[in-house]
Amino acid sequence: MTRRKLVAGNWKMNGDRAALAELVAIAAAGAGAVDVAIAVPATLIAPAVALVPGFAIGGEDVHPAETGAHTGCLSAALLKEAGASFCIVGHSERRADCYETDAEVKAKAEALHRHAMRAILCVGETLAQRDAGQAEAVVTGQIAASLPEGAAADWLSIAYEPVWAIGTGRTPTVADVAAMHGAIRAKLRALIGAEADAMRILYGGSVTAENAAALLHAGDVDGALVGGASLTAAKFVPIVAAAG
Ligand code: PEP
């Protein structure tokens, strides 16, 4: 099956209104036959959408509840009202910093789906888990425990992000990436049947203009989730080009 590639950026807690000039340059560069999206800090969602209407702007986290006493959190409805069309859930930095569990990640994705938003669900092993030979079991276990009800390719993508590759300049070999994506695809098939073949599985972790072509064309890799290199058009646009 042919799956259209998706290259998504994750600005994390970086960027300000002045930095949105980079977003304008990224949008202006065009994407060809590739989908492009950028998740930005929540305060930048509305100004970003105003600057690049029609470009997919997303949030970096969402609370699973609709409303309530959750100081500092944002619901899917609030993100959507601000202009976000998608949101990342389960990023390893949130799993580590905020102790997010698979069950919470699942509930977050389901909240996005209730509001007709798209989700990028992140999974990935730590270095200790990889060294112990547990990487595949950990990642497929995260998939099984955090895959939302109604998981379907038109609103959900998976991002395989080995924790030890995020922001470190280290990446798995292309063969290791292909093997893990194949294992994720097989797990998805076991869970949701043929829909798994339409679902995009992104690779994330130190993707750069230099390594993007090899990583993005590995088996079962349907795009990338890019952190540091999504902050400037000069670094991000070549990654989008490499995906095409
Ligand atoms: C990320 O934060 O999802 C990520 C992959 O970061 P980086 O590209 O900087 O490793």
List keywords for this structure.
244 residues; alpha/beta; 8 strands; binds phosphoenolpyruvate
Termini separation comes to 16 Å
CATH topology: TIM Barrel
Mean pLDDT: 97
Bound molecules: phosphoenolpyruvate
Give the strand tally: 8
The tally of domains stands at 1
| Secondary-structure element string | EHEHEHEHHEHHEHEHEH
How would you characterize this protein structure?
Helix 7 runs parallel beside helix 8 (174-192). The chain is an alpha/beta fold. The protein has one domain (6-243): TIM Barrel (Alpha-Beta Barrel), CATH 3.20.20.70. The mean pLDDT is 97. Helix content is 40%, strand content 15%. The chain has helices at residues 20-29, 42-51, 76-82, 92-97, 102-114, 127-131, 135-146, 174-192, 212-216, 233-243, and strands at residues 6-10, 35-39, 56-59, 86-89, 118-123, 156-160, 201-204, 223-226. The two termini are 16 Å apart. An eight-stranded parallel beta barrel has the order 1-2-3-4-5-6-7-8, surrounded by five helices. The structure holds phosphoenolpyruvate.
Fold topology:
Layout lengths: L5 E5 L9 H10 L5 E5 L2 H10 L4 E4 L16 H7 L3 E4 L2 H6 L4 H13 L3 E6 L3 H5 L3 H12 L9 E5 L13 H19 L8 E4 L7 H5 L6 E4 L6 H11 L1
Parallel strand pairs: 1-2, 1-8, 2-3, 3-4, 4-5, 5-6, 6-7, 7-8
Helix pairs in contact: 1-10, 5-7, 7-8
Short description:
This protein has 244 residues and is an alpha/beta fold. It contains ten helices and eight strands.
